[in-house]
């Protein structure tokens, strides 16, 4: 293997441009003659639009065009990507999500009009001149009241606020109910998975362009998923043929899920560019990000765990209300269902699992996938109720988990929640955790903290996630409206360097470094001679984007398959050059040789021959060396882990300080350990953010109280302990060619219960009668729990 | 941001004249005003820039008084107010380095944010606010939320702090903004103790007189036993209830007293 192949911790090559200010983000592009767009956004959560008078705005200096919901009545809406069927067999309720609100506004920040002007300030001035008569109605905010149906409706035409009432697995419901009824012990926990605002460093931005000479459109946008945006704009929203629309996602400054989706602003700048024949740019303010990006989480859950007296798990039963906000964002319906309910067996051999999820429309921003997407909600519920159960049974939290772990000789394992786990070794992870986190030394550290007047607690938990999203045949049965394969083209240039066009988009994941390592490993070339091309639908065969820890497992596998095809063709060329048959040629470390001889030819010479085929057997061999592969996974991948954290609680103020955070993960084969460590660290920071700090709160009128960074607490460096990350306890993924499972979301999935378990442990050890505190476990909440 | 005129005076006199114009607004370090203007939530017609005026910049200690020019940044106070360590520490923990390198003491106390740190330091020290027209004692200066005794067009040119025998500022961060969820400044001058509380009250910074009386008699944390501020007038918000804030006032006051001894 050359330096820089699979397993090499090479530095991220893209960081040179990011760290020296040379990244190029959407807002950095200003095509000649660009005009600027600003939106009028609702100040009320629920309102009837009586009139929107744009005449004064249109007369303002510099204004080029104005738009209202009326202008888009004839075009389509932004659809949900996944059709969920309710327990009674009824399809989910799917109200139209228009480009601009029409008839009603449904959340604070809902855009109902737009202005395009010569300058941004002129556009903003004109927005202020819009005369809108919007009659405020009672807002639907609290999910329980929304479901009860006594008050207002978010969407009048569907006559309910319940989008669907889903059961998983409905056929297991009766057996689960019976098992819980008969069980010797049942632990019940009610909890809230707090609503989060993704807050990527780069706010969303979009530039629409239209070429009247060719009829071609171009959208430059902050997307994790440019082909999906192209598909949705083409097939559902504006009807622009895909061959006339290029979607470009250049450097993107973080997504965390919020940039997977197609948003209305993208459609608007394209429509405006066509109307004006000029580029139209919109860049969100941070305030717009808070109000109009898809938020995350927001579940209200009751979970029950039934066990034998010895702690053997009998059943998990969960009832969840999941907020979907005012409109269905593209992945809003799959996130609380198949990305959540199917994980509710966790790492355990529990025989009965049943999950009921009611998705609820409210007058709040749409809620969709956010780093982890459904799986953090599952892990949090499971690992919190298991901790509570252990305490009730007087068992050690490690012991109760070990007792119920799936053992390493049980794979493939069909979980009671409907998935088939292909590989794992949870006991090995727990062994490693006990050692790395020095669980045995906790008592001494607790005593030391006590001397300083602090309550110390230890939290541990396991997690499993389903990543590598996803096998198309399976998700198709479950209601997905798209396939979830990915694609890559490997293009060997005449001089032997290589361009790889990949469907996955890199916005912090380090693909530009990691993907070439796969190709370099397989072809025996220097990784620096391989570059990837991503984020441009005109250059890439196809792609389903980056989310769900899927890029390496799915798109990386497509790169692997395309590279295999390159080797097959290159072998045929080498055979021709060596005047032998392909079956007699072997390929090692970049050299083709006739087996058993020292006759050989290097990869570079073969590449050159492919493009200068002067002596080619033209009937047998095509010139060129370029191959494309689409890869559709046979199963999800199942990363897993064991986490531990110690915290100190100040008993006087309730302030929690995280003393340690140890994350042991099984990601299968790791291509670049340094990047993986960084991904886990980032995920841990976000998980700790959710556990300790972040909370998106609407008041009863639907005003976003945590609408800025002054009130929405993001984790900062000094909120974080030293993060110990270890991914050495790996079991290979059995069904993809690289053997990788995915690492992007793990930290955000595994860590919230670790922190809350530790805080509750600290309080209980400190003599307080506390069995749960909802996230974020802020000082005021901890103090209230200690002083209830 | 709406358009505005920017006046860059070369002296306090010029600044005073410029401030007489309709819609004129003094600009200190701009750490509150500029973000507000960027969000189109404030629209002054004219900004009068004070931060470049050298006569308003400086930290000087003489005969028991620390004098700080109105346009002195928090960073400079943190670095140079060694004669009054508690105040230097307070300044060094405002915001982040970017804020401390721009934000000024005059700007902070003219704005009188109910969660800002400086009002606690000024009131807790019994300092004197000096303006272009007069001197105002701290007890008269802070009126209400974002409201001070400053008249229209009046400029804070400096603050004179009597240097106490002992003092300490305890700040408990609001987790998002890292302003004070509650901050308590305790200063001891001979037998007289002042206790000023920021972050907690709907009326802005205030003196906790019961604690002062108790500490005058016995300057020790034990003297505060059983004392509590009335939660009725305190702020309740996302980050903490009035009861929690009232509790924190007690905890932080005790800690400040302990840190003094």
UniProtKB/TrEMBL annotation, chain A:
Signal peptide: none annotated. One of its GO terms (molecular function) is anaerobic carbon-monoxide dehydrogenase activity. It comes from the Bacteria. The keyword Oxidoreductase applies. The keyword Oxidoreductase applies. This is Carbon monoxide dehydrogenase large chain. Residues 20-138 form the Aldehyde oxidase/xanthine dehydrogenase a/b hammerhead domain. Its EC number is 1.2.7.4. InterPro entries: Ald_Oxase/Xan_DH_a/b, Ald_Oxase/Xan_DH_a/b_sf, Ald_Oxase/xanthine_DH-like, AldOxase/xan_DH_MoCoBD1, AldOxase/xan_DH_MoCoBD2, AldOxase/xan_DH_Mopterin-bd_sf. Keywords: Molybdenum, Oxidoreductase.
TrEMBL record, chain B:
Residues 1-166 form the FAD-binding PCMH-type domain. It is an enzyme of class 1 (oxidoreductase). Its EC number is 1.2.7.4. SMART domains: CO_deh_flav_C. GO terms for molecular function: anaerobic carbon-monoxide dehydrogenase activity; FAD binding. Keywords: FAD, Flavoprotein, Oxidoreductase. PANTHER family: XANTHINE DEHYDROGENASE SUBUNIT C-RELATED. This is Carbon monoxide dehydrogenase medium chain.
């Amino acid at each position: 293997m050359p330096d820089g192949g699979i397993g090499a911790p090479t530095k991220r090559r893209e960081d040179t441009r990011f760290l020296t200010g040379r990244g190029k983000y959407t807002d950095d592009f200003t095509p000649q003659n660009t005009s600027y767009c600003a939106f009028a956004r609702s100040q009320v959560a629920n309102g009837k639009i009586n009139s929107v008078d744009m005449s004064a705005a249109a007369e303002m200096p510099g204004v080029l065009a104005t738009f209202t919901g009326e202008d888009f009545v004839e075009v389509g809406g932004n659809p949900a990507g996944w059709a969920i069927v309710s327990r009674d067999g009824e399809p989910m309720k799917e109200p139209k999500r228009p480009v601009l609100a029409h008839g009603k506004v449904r959340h604070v920040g809902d855009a109902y009009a737009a202005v395009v002007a010569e300058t941004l300030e002129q556009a903003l001035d004109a927005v202020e001149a819009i005369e809108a008569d919007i009659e405020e109605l009672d807002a639907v905010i609290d999910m329980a009241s929304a479901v009860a149906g006594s008050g207002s409706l978010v969407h009048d035409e569907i006559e309910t606020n319940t989008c669907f009432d889903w059961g998983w697995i409905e056929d297991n419901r009766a057996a689960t109910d019976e098992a819980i009824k008969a069980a010797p012990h049942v632990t019940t926990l009610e909890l809230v998975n707090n609503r989060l605002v993704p807050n990527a460093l780069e706010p969303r931005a979009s530039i629409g362009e239209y070429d009247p000479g060719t009829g071609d459109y171009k959208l430059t946008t902050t997307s994790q998923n440019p082909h999906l945006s192209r598909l949705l704009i083409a097939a559902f929203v504006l009807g622009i043929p895909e061959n006339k629309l290029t979607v470009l996602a250049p450097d993107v400054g973080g997504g965390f899920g919020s940039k997977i989706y197609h948003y209305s602003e993208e459609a608007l700048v394209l429509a405006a560019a066509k109307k004006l024949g000029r580029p139209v740019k919109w860049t969100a303010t941070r305030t717009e990000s808070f109000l109009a990006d898809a938020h995350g989480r927001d579940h209200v859950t009751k979970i029950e765990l039934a066990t034998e007296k010895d702690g053997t798990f009998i059943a998990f039963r969960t009832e969840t209300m999941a907020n979907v906000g005012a409109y269905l964002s593209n992945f809003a319906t799959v996130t609380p269902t198949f990305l959540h309910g199917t994980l509710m067996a966790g790492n355990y051999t529990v025989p009965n699992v049943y999950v009921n999820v009611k998705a609820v429309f409210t007058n709040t921003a749409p809620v969709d996938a956010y780093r982890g997407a459904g799986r953090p909600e599952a892990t949090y519920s499971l690992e919190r109720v298991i901790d509570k159960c252990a305490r009730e049974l007087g068992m050690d939290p490690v012991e109760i988990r070990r007792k119920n772990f799936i053992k390493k000789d049980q794979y493939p394992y069909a979980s009671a929640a409907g998935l088939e786990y292909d590989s794992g070794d949870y006991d090995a992870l727990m062994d490693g955790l006990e050692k790395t986190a020095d669980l045995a030394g906790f008592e001494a550290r607790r005593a030391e903290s006590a001397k300083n007047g602090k309550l110390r607690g230890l939290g541990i938990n396991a997690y499993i996630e389903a990543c590598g999203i996803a096998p198309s045949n399976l998700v198709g049965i479950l209601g997905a409206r798209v396939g979830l394969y990915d694609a890559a083209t490997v293009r060997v240039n005449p001089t032997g360097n290589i361009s790889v066009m990949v469907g996955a988009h890199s916005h912090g994941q380090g693909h530009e470094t990691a993907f070439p390592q796969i190709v370099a490993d397989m072809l025996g070339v220097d990784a620096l001679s391989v570059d990837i091309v991503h984020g441009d639908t005109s250059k890439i065969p196809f792609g389903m984007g980056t989310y769900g820890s899927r890029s390496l497992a799915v798109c990386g596998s497509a790169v692997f398959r395309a590279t295999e095809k390159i080797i097959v063709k290159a072998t045929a060329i080498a055979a021709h050059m060596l005047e032998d048959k392909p079956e007699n040629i072997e390929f090692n470390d970049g050299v083709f040789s006739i087996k058993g001889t020292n006759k050989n030819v290097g990869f570079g010479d073969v590449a050159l021959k492919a493009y200068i085929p002067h002596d080619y057997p033209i009937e047998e061999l095509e010139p060129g060396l370029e191959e494309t592969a689409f890869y559709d996974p046979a199963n999800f991948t199942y990363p897993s882990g064991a986490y531990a954290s110690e915290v100190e609680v100040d008993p006087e103020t309730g302030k929690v300080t995280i003393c340690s955070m140890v994350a042991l993960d099984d990601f299968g084969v790791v291509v670049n350990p340094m990047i993986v460590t960084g991904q886990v660290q980032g995920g841990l920071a976000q998980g700790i953010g959710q556990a300790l700090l972040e909370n998106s709160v609407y008041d009863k009128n639907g005003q976003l109280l945590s609408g800025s960074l002054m009130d929405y607490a993001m984790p900062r460096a000094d909120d974080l302990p030293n993060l110990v990350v270890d991914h050495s306890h790996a079991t290979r993924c059995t069904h993809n060619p690289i053997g990788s499972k995915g690492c992007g979301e793990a930290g955000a999935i595994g860590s919230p219960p670790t922190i809350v378990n530790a805080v509750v442990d600290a309080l209980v050890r400190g003599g307080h009668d506390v069995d749960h505190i909802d996230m974020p476990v802020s000082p005021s909440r901890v103090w209230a729990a200690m002083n209830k | 941001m709406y358009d505005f005129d920017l006046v860059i005076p070369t002296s306090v006199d010029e600044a005073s004249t410029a401030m007489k114009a309709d819609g004129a607004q003094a600009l200190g370090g701009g750490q509150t005003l500029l973000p507000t203007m960027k969000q189109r939530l404030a629209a002054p017609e004219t900004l009068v820039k004070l931060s470049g005026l050298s006569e308003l910049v400086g930290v000087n200690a003489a005969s028991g008084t620390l004098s700080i020019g109105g346009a002195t940044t928090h960073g400079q106070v943190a670095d140079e107010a060694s004669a009054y360590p508690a105040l230097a520490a307070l300044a060094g923990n405002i915001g982040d380095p970017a804020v401390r390198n721009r934000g000024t003491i005059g700007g902070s106390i003219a704005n009188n944010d109910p969660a800002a740190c400086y009002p606690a330091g000024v009131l807790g020290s019994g300092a004197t606010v000096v303006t272009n027209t007069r001197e105002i004692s701290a007890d008269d200066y802070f009126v209400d939320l974002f409201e001070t005794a400053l008249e229209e067009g009046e400029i804070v040119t400096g603050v004179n702090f009597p240097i106490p025998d002992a003092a300490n500022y305890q700040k408990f961060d609001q987790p998002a903004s890292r302003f004070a969820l509650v901050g308590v400044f305790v200063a001891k001058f001979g037998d007289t103790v002042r206790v000023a509380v920021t972050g907690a009250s709907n009326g802005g910074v205030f003196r906790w007189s019961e604690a002062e009386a108790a500490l005058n008699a016995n300057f020790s944390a034990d003297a505060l036993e059983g004392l509590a501020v009335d939660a009725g007038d305190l702020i309740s918000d996302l980050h903490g209830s009035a009861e929690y804030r009232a509790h924190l006032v007690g905890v932080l006051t005790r800690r400040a007293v302990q840190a003094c001894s």
